[in-house]
Design a protein that fits this description.
By secondary structure, the protein is of the alpha/beta class. It folds into 2 domains: 149 residues, Aspartate Aminotransferase, domain 1 (Alpha-Beta Complex), CATH 3.90.1150.10; 234 residues, Type I PLP-dependent aspartate aminotransferase-like (Major domain) (Aspartate Aminotransferase, domain 2). It has 14 helices and 15 strands. Helix 11 packs parallel to helix 14. The radius of gyration is 21 Å and the shape is globular. The relative contact order is 0.16. Keywords: Lyase, Pyridoxal phosphate. This is Selenocysteine lyase/Cysteine desulfurase.
Length: 421
């Protein structure tokens, strides 16, 4: 099988994909439901569930003089290599922390404090507060003005041209959001990083990849950045840890570490081997899927093929949700519905956020829950106000999909929406 076509168009592949995940069709607490809340935390691979249980029972830890400890360290080393392959990262360090947000704060802090004196910290108004708040806080501590690139409200994204207009030769640190968890609209991190480096080649560039990771298509060699962070619970693993990649030049800066400890070590204290092992499960899933949708034999090529297939599946789902499927009208055809980021947006990644005139978002979310469709509300608060407030919306409904969702589930959502509206 070749070509970037939707996973559902590969025979029975979609059924085999869904069989790899836990609780695809029903919530363990409330019963049957369609899961369109993936941006809040994707479904978990069954292999990751099994791996978590297995390692939770092992009493040994890395760094001891016994065979079990040595094996645990080998598993951690393998997971780091797997993550580097998934990121397509060259050099640098892969490590885990408390969460994606915590790791963004750490990378941005170390960059702000370790960069040469003076200069500015550059970010954008489209960013999640995980990176925006961190950059503002540590820019202030480091005595560097924080400069904000304003995103395009209509498209819900920020461009390389917008960054180029704000970057100066004195830019010391820059942050980029790969994909918005509010709109699902992606940003071209490679183009933005190139625009920054054209004027400030030595700037430290750190990317929030938390929302993007489940869609695949991460290529840090092409991006040319210094840091990239994901939250594994949003990419088919579990809660309780985040994963970061830091370049060699970022790793060389001073950061929290035990005196006399290994040089370049980012981690504090004993690591959870199970967290690393479940990361390998995630990468193995992309590898497996790439082998199902392509003739690729090399792991990285299969991972890239998986990303293309995922993009095709999710684009098909978004198209159906916006323009309808069968005899069901899409959101774009429903009276009074406004789609955040615009209906025709080529940068959308498996997510549609909308408002309906005269119907509060909370009411729609509750009504969909009664119809067996789980979605989420985004309010104009500290998480989403940067996107919704400029548009004049107090709240919106977020419908987020992943590659295991189906046309039939979209049809059920549209039927429910027709009834609700």
């Amino acid at each position: 099988m070749t070509g970037a076509v939707p996973i559902e168009d590969h025979g029975q592949l979609i059924a085999r994909v869904r069989a790899r995940f836990a609780h695809v069709e029903e919530c363990p607490l409330t019963g049957p439901r369609i899961f369109f809340e993936n941006a809040g935390g994707a479904l978990t691979l069954k292999s990751a569930v099994e791996t978590s249980a297995k390692f939770a029972a092992i009493p040994d830890n890395q760094g001891r003089m016994n065979a079990a400890s040595k094996k645990l360290q080998e598993i951690i080393d393998t997971a780091r290599a797997d993550a580097a392959l998934f990121f397509n990262a060259e050099g640098g360090r892969v490590f885990v922390g408390e969460s994606g947000t915590e790791l963004l704060f750490r990378l941005i802090r170390d960059a702000c404090l370790g960069a040469p004196e003076g200069g500015i910290v550059l970010g954008s108004s489209v960013e999640h507060p995980a990176s925006r708040s961190a950059a503002q806080r540590w820019a202030d501590v480091a005595g560097k003005p924080y400069v904000q690139v304003i995103h395009d409200d209509a498209e819900g994204r920020v461009t390389a041209e917008a960054y180029a207009a704000k970057v100066t030769p004195e830019t010391r640190v820059a942050t980029i959001l790969h994909t918005s968890p509010v709109t699902g609209i992606g940003n071209d991190i490679a183009a933005i990083a190139a625009a920054i480096r054209a004027t400030a080649p030595e700037a430290f560039i750190i990317v929030d990849g938390i929302q993007h990771a489940c869609h695949g298509g991460i290529d840090l060699r092409a991006a040319g950045v210094d840091g990239y962070v994901i939250s594994p619970y949003k990419v088919f693993s579990r809660h309780g840890y985040g994963v970061a990649w830091a370049s060699d030049r970022l790793t060389a800066l001073d950061h929290d570490a035990l005196k006399g400890g290994p040089e370049g070590n980012w981690e504090l204290g004993t690591r959870d081997t199970g967290a690393y092992a479940t990361l390998s499960d995630v990468v193995a899933h992309f590898d497996w899927l790439g082998g199902e949708v392509s003739d690729a034999t090399e792991p990285r090529a299969r991972i890239e093929a998986a990303g293309r297939a995922i993009a095709a599946q999710e684009a098909m789902l978004c198209e159906a949700m916006l323009h309808g499927t069968g005899n069901l009208a899409g959101l774009a055809e429903m009276p009074g519905v406004t789609v955040i980021g615009g209906v025709e947006n080529a940068h959308r990644e498996g997510l549609v956020t909308f408002v309906a005139e005269g119907r509060p978002a909370a009411e729609i979310v509750e009504a969909l829950e009664e119809e067996g469709v789980r979605v989420h509300i985004r309010k104009a608060d500290h998480y989403s106000g940067n996107i919704l407030t400029p548009l004049g919306f107090e709240a919106a409904v977020r419908v987020s999909m992943c590659h295991y969702n189906t046309r039939a589930e979209v049809a059920a959502f549209l039927a429910a929406m027709s009834k609700i509206l």
